[in-house]
Each structure stands twice: as C-alpha cells, then as structure tokens.
Amino acid sequence: MNQDLLKVCQVVHTLNVGGAEILAREYALRSRDQCNTLFACLDEIGSLGENLRRDGQVVETLGRQSGFDFAVARKLARLCREHNVDVIHAQQYTPFFYAALSRIPFGGPPILFTEHGRSFPDYRRSKRVFANKVLLRRCDHIVAVGKQVKQALIDNEGISANRIEVIYNGIDINAFRHSPGVRAEVRQELGISDADIAVFQVARLNALKDHGTAVRTWARLTDCPTVRLFLVGDGEERPSIERLIDKLGLHRSITLLGTRNDVPRLINAADMFLMTSVSEGIPLTLIEAMANGVPCVSTDAGGIAEVVLDGVTGLLSPAGDDAAIAASVMRLAKDADLRKRMGEQGCERAETLFSDSTMHAAYQGLYRQMSSSGTRREFR
C-alpha cells in the first residue's frame, strides 16, 4: 500500500454481489494509482469481499448486531484512525448513519454519502428526518445516483436540494461491447437456436426484483415457445420462483442459470433484456445491456426511466403488470428491426451518459476536494 496516496474507507452493508457493492469494488480497483481503499462491511464480508481480500485489499467487518448497535460506530472510528483515513465514502443510508454517528463522539475524516436506491415502500419518517438534522452536520457531501433518487432524499429524508449532487452510475463500456463470435458461442452453450428469442434478466432473486412477475409474464407467452427467459442470479426467493415455474409448467421456457461471473459474456447471447423490479436507483444491469446493443423491457420503477427511454431504447410498463410486460416482449419479439434500432440507440445512450470514466473522475474530484477542505475533526 502506497502511504503517499489518499486513503479512502468505503463503508458498505456487505460485499455480496449487488449494484452498490460492485460499484464500490470498481471505485477501488479503478483508482489504485490515485488512492488506497479499505472496506468496512457492517455485516458479512461476502463473496466480493473475499475476492478483494485475496487480491490484497483491506476488507474488515464491523459485526453489526440486530437493531441499533453503537459499537459499530466505535469500531469504524478505530479502523479509520488505525489506517489514517482521509475520506469516508458511505454507500447507502445505513452505512452513512453509522459513519456520521462515529464522527460525533470520536471525530474523524470528512464523509461522502452516496444514495444508490430507496427502500420500498419509500415514505417520510419523522424520527429519521429529525435524526438527519443532527447526522447531516457530520456529512460533507451527498451524492444521489439519479434525479429520482435525489428527489426521494429531498421528500423523505428532509435533505435540502442544494446539498445533493447527481452523479450517474457508470460501467466499463468496452467490457460490454457486442461480439458476434461470443454470441454464437454462448447461444450454443445454452442451447439457444437461431429461431429462439433469448431474453435475459440479471438480478438477485429477492422481493424487490419481483421475479414472480417475470414468471407470470411468461405464462402469458405459452403460444410463443421460442421466446425463452434466462434468469441470472441467486437469492432467498429462488425456492418460491422454482415452485411458481413448476406450478405454471414453464420449465421449458424459463432457465435459471444461478450466479454467474461471466455476465458481460452472457449478455452477447441476448435478444432482449428484462427487468421487473418494483424499486431501483440507476440499475447497472440495464446500462450493461444497452452497452451491448440489447433493447430493454422494464418496469417503470425508481430511476429506470432515466436509463431506458420508453419507445426509444426499450419499452417500459408499470411495476407488477405482467400483461403489459408480456405485450412489450411480444412487440419486440416480432420485430427484429425494432430490436436493432432500439439496441443501437441504447448503446449510444450508454456511451454518452453512463461511462465509468465520467463517474470515476467525478468521485476522485470529490475525494480531493474533501480531503483538502479542512473539515476533518481530529480523533478523540
């Protein structure tokens, strides 16, 4: 570890596979020549954390207990003191809560809070708004990953609009560029014929991603056996999803691929990309599909409409409306020219708005600004 570089502590819930967690990892790996990064996980380290540890990255767990756990704030302050941290970057609200709490009695470096998405249902909590008035005095900069997320912070957290900056999530566009050769290879591996329309959904199998709606959508497509759905990801909802697939007799048209480490490769095989979430910030998986030139069929939830332009780069439907989603899937399945046109426009949009180079430059600028701002409070 180069002791002359800026030292950043990323505070996360866990480092299991997820959008915010992947971004935190990418911040660290992409900026190794500009800052040293350590990770503080409130809960378990997770699979991404284990991989980072094997690569020599400092990853610690704070061992949060259920309910309010003040010991987490104390442990975080100790970790930052031991590593002489210059900036704390809290990913999501609860990591921000403990980071700000640690600064009240113990002092410490300036705090950057990034909000990636909102809980569902999202509403204003008077006690939390009151607590924020105290905690936000210890926060130096607030970032929302999209305009809808920013508005939710204003409406439901009581944060002033002028305190919140929008920095869109970004990806390595080149890693997701389409490859005809890889497409043929993956389709052969998965048994996808030239006549099949392959639809991919990449998401953790949890309630917010609402895979049940995806399965019920396919129950409406039984007259179109060549339209096949591939679910990439795993999670606590898998047993119930498998039961629903069996109940509806869809095991021939829906394939569960589980957790995969080759998503950029898999996406090459897709003719469409599906998202059925009831709540989202700025979803990386939609951006990844667009970068590959794949048109998207998605619910209009959270910040999704900031990524997918309805009728331009994909088709949007209300969350939970399997009939509307099925109609969108069928519209694209029957029109190869429309798929091609939407895919091309999506690729252009991803390159213009959602590149990782733009995102990293913005965060590095904030790190430098915060570390030299004089807002650090000496540890006590």
TrEMBL record:
<dbReference type="InterPro" id="IPR001296">
    <property type="entry name" value="Glyco_trans_1"/>
</dbReference>
<keyword id="KW-0808">Transferase</keyword>
<protein>
    <submittedName>
        <fullName>Putative glycosyltransferase EpsD</fullName>
        <ecNumber>2.4.-.-</ecNumber>
    </submittedName>
</protein>
<dbReference type="InterPro" id="IPR028098">
    <property type="entry name" value="Glyco_trans_4-like_N"/>
</dbReference>
<feature type="domain" description="Glycosyl transferase family 1">
    <location>
        <begin position="183"/>
        <end position="346"/>
    </location>
</feature>
<dbReference type="Pfam" id="PF00534">
    <property type="entry name" value="Glycos_transf_1"/>
</dbReference>
<keyword id="KW-0328">Glycosyltransferase</keyword>
<feature type="domain" description="Glycosyltransferase subfamily 4-like N-terminal">
    <location>
        <begin position="17"/>
        <end position="174"/>
    </location>
</feature>
<dbReference type="GO" id="GO:0016757">
    <property type="term" value="F:glycosyltransferase activity"/>
</dbReference>
<dbReference type="Pfam" id="PF13439">
    <property type="entry name" value="Glyco_transf_4"/>
</dbReference>
